[in-house]
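At this stage, I put together one protein's amino acid sequence and its backbone structure tokens, which the following lines show:
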Amino acid sequence: MDVMRRADFCLQPPGESFTRRSTFDSVLAGCIPVFFSVHTAHTQYRWYLPSRPAEWSVMLDPSQRDQIEDELARIPRAEVGRMREAIIGLIPRMTYAHPDANRSQLGFRDAVDVALVELTRRVRSIHYKH
């Protein structure tokens, strides 16, 4: 995690599955994830991640794997700063608040809150369709 905290970008190549623990670790470290497939995070975690992935992550085509450093160096420092702020803003919704925390005083929704809100929304939409 220390390395991720010091880095601007954290590469998230595909692994055995599209979901990688490293993706969550990079967000929690405030490191901008660099993806090579939309399925790594963009299509799987819509409840937790903003709908405009270019604001908080970088997507590289697998054919660009030989130019990763060049591609990332083209991103202006101001844009890197904005993306890092967006990543830091995601941290609360990707973590769990302490079970004894006064939820009304937290000031943010944690991962459980996000899941419950989205599940409720989904159940209501199904109910209203029938």
Notes: The beta strands are 9-12, 32-35, 58-59. Residues 96-130 form one domain.
